[in-house]
Amino acid sequence: MKKKSVSPIQQLQRASVPHALSPEKLRWQCNPRSLGVRTTDHVQPTRDIIGQERALRALRVGLEMNHFGYNIFVTGISGTGRTTTIKRLLKDFEQQQVELQDQCYVYNFKNPDTPLAIALPAGQGTGLKQDMEGFITDLRRDIPAVYESQRYQNARKKLVQHFQDRQKTILQDFERRVKERGFDLAQVQAGNALRPEIIPLVDNAQSSMDQIEALVQKGEFDKERFASMREVLGELEQQMAAVFRELRNIEKKVQESLSALEEQYVMPAVDDALNVLKIRYEYKKLHIYFDEIRDAISGTLDRFRKQQLTLPAAQEEEEPEEDLFLEFQVNVLVDNSETQHVPMVIETNPKYKNIFGSVERELEKGGVWRTDFTKIKAGSLLHANGGYLVLNALDILIEPGVWQDLKRTLRTGLIDIQSYEPMFGFMAASIKPEPIEINVKVIIIGDTELYHLLYYRDDDFKKIFKIRADFDFEMPNSARAIKQYICFIKMVCDDEKLIPFDNTALAHVIEFGVRLSGRKQKISTRFNVIADVVREAAYWAKKQHAPHVTNVHVKKAIDERVYRVKLMEDKIQEMIDNGTMMIDTKGAVIGQVNGLSVYESGEHAFGKPSRITARTAMGRSGVINIEREAEMSGPTHNKGVAILSGYFRSMFAQNKPLVMDASITFEQSYGGVDGDSASSTEIYAILSSLAGVPIRQDLAVTGSVNQKGEIQPIGGVNLKIEGFFDVCNARGLSGTQGVIIPIQNVHELMLREEVYEAVQKKKFHVYAVKSVDEGIEILTGVKAGKLRKDGSHEPNTVYARADAKLLYYANEWKRFEGK
Fold it and tell me: pTM, whole model, 2 decimals?
C-alpha cells in the first residue's frame, strides 16, 4: 500500500505537537461554588489590611519606637493601599497616653524681634490668652481710677507743692542776692522760649552792659565801677547756673518722687493681678514673662491713665484700642483644649508655610510691610506635635526649601517658624520667633526609586528615616486570600451602596486579581484597581436592571477598561492586518522568526509580534546587531546579542575558527529595542540561516538565553502570547499556530479566557522549552543534534548543517587568505 505523502510543513507541525502545554496549565480558574457563598449579601465586610504583613510589621515598629530617627518611609506602587493602611493603623494609636501641649507666642520686652515661645498643658493656652485680655481690661479700668482717687490726688498735690516751694525759695533767695549786688533778674525772649537773664541797674533802671560800656567811653560812667560791675556779673551768672542745676535736680527728684508715688499707689493693683496669674500658671518662664510685663507697665503708666473704659462694651474692641496694648496679647498657635486623641495630620498640600508655619505681614498705608508676634501661624508639623504627620515624598521634594528644613527639624527637634517667600525677590523686614521643641513621628509615602535615591544621595536620610515599610503588590493565592477578597468586595458594595455580587462575579474578580499579579500562585494587592472593577461592574449591571452583578458584568467592566486605553494596540493591529507591518502566520522561511515584544502606553501594556531576520556570510565580524549599529539598541539588548556570540563559540568554534558575519535585526523597528527576551529568537534565526532549514511562521518565540544554550524566563509572558494570538485570530486560527515560551514561565500563565478556549479546542498552542535544542526542533521539525566526543554533530541535524556551513566558511576564508 502506498503511503500518503506529507508536506514538509506538516512534518514540522506534527513534530511540535507533543510539546504543547495542556489547557489546565494556561489559566488558573476560580470555581464559584468553592467560594461557599451565593451573593455578597451573605458575607461580612472587613476593613482589615490585606496582604501587607511585612509592611505592617515595619510600620508597627516605627510607630512604637520613641527613639531618635525612627521615622518611616513607606514604599510600594500606587494602589497597594499605603495611605489607607496608614490611616487605619494610626487609629490603633489614637488612644495612646500623651501629654498634649498648647503652643503660644508672647511679646519679648527685652528683644522685640524675637517673640518668646510658651508651651502649656492642653487647654491652658486659651486660658492664658483670656486671662491676659482680662488683665489688661482690669488695668485699663483700675489704673485711671487710682489716678483720679482723692487719696492719690492729695498725695501728688502735696508732693508737687513741696518741691515747688523749694524751687520758689531758691529762686527768691537768688533774686534777693542779685538785687543786693545792684542787678535785677528778668525773663528775656529767646526764640519761642523765655530764659532768665541778669540785668545791671543804673540809677534804679535796667540797662545792658553794652549801654553802660558806651557811657564809659563817653566818660559819663566810672570806668572802675564798670569793671567791678562786670566782675560781679560773672559771679552772679555762675551762681545762676548753679541755681538752675539745683532746680533741674529738683525737677528730677519730682519725677522720681512721682514714680515712687505711682509705685506706692498704682502698682499694687498691677502686682495683685500678676500674683493671681503667677499662682494660676506655675511655670518659671511665664513668671519671668510676668515680671517683664510689670516693668513694661511701670514704665508706660501714662497710656493706661488715658485709657479709662468709658465706652460701651461693643466699642471697646475697636482696632486702635487693641493696638495700644498689642504687646500684652497672647498668640495661641496650637489649641489642644478639645483634642481627645494623639494628633494625626495628613498634609495633602505640603507647601512650605503649610508644613512649618509662617510669619504673615500686612502692608500699611505708607507702603511699608509690618508684622508682629500675633501674625505667627502654625503649620502641620506643630499641629502634629506629640503625634504623627503623613507626607508625600515627591510633593515635599519638589517644594522649595521643604526637604532641607524638614531634615533639620527632625535632626534638632526644633521647629523654626519664619517668613519663607522665595518668589518675592526681596526680603521684607520680619521677626525671628524663638524655636519650639517638638516631638513628631513623620511618615513619608513615596516610590521605591525615590527611597533609593535619597538613601544613597542624602547622608542625613538614613539617620532620620530608619524604618522602611515596603508594600507588596501581590500576595499568595490561597483560600485565605480569596476569602479576604470577597470581604473586601463586600465592603466596597456596602460603602458605596452597590448592587450585590453573585458567586460568579466574585470568582471573575478574583481571577482578574490573579491575572493582575502576573502569576497563578499570586493575587494582586492593588485594591484600588480591584475596587474600580467592582464599581464599574455594578454600573453595567445597573444599566441592565440586573438584581445581582454576575460574571458577565465583570467581564464587561474589564473589557471596557481595556477598550478605553487600547487605541495604540488597535492601531498596530490594524497595520498588521493591512500588511503595513509584515508578519507571517503560515508557511516556513529560512532565517526569519516571529519575535514577541511588549508595548507600554501609560496604564495599558500589550504584546505584539515583530519579525526578526538573520543573514549569514563568511567574515570575521561575528554577530552584527543592526539595531546597535543604528544606535537604536538598549544596553540589555546589546548584552543579549553579546551572549549569542559566546553561545556560537562554545557550540561551533572548538575545532575551528568562527569565520562568520551574522547580521540580525528587528524588521520595521523605528523606536528602539531593549531587553534580552528575544535572544533565543535571534539564535534560532541565525541557526536557520546557517543550516538552510526553514522556520515555521505560524509560531512566535520569546525567551532569554545564556551562553550554554539554556532558555531563561522573561517578563510579560501573558501579554506576548495574547499578542500573537490576536494576530492569528484576526486572520483565522489554523489549528497549528502557537507560541514558544521558557518553561520557567509556565507557572505565570494566566491567559485570557478567549485564548484558553482556543487552546482547549486545539486551535492554538503554547509550547514550553528548556533549551535552544528543544526550541529549534519545534520550529524546524528537524532534530537539533547532539555533540559527539570527536567534536562533530549528529548527521542530518540542524547543528550538523550549521557546523558544515561554518566549516565551509573557515576553509574558504583560509583559501582566500592564502591567495
Answer: 0.78
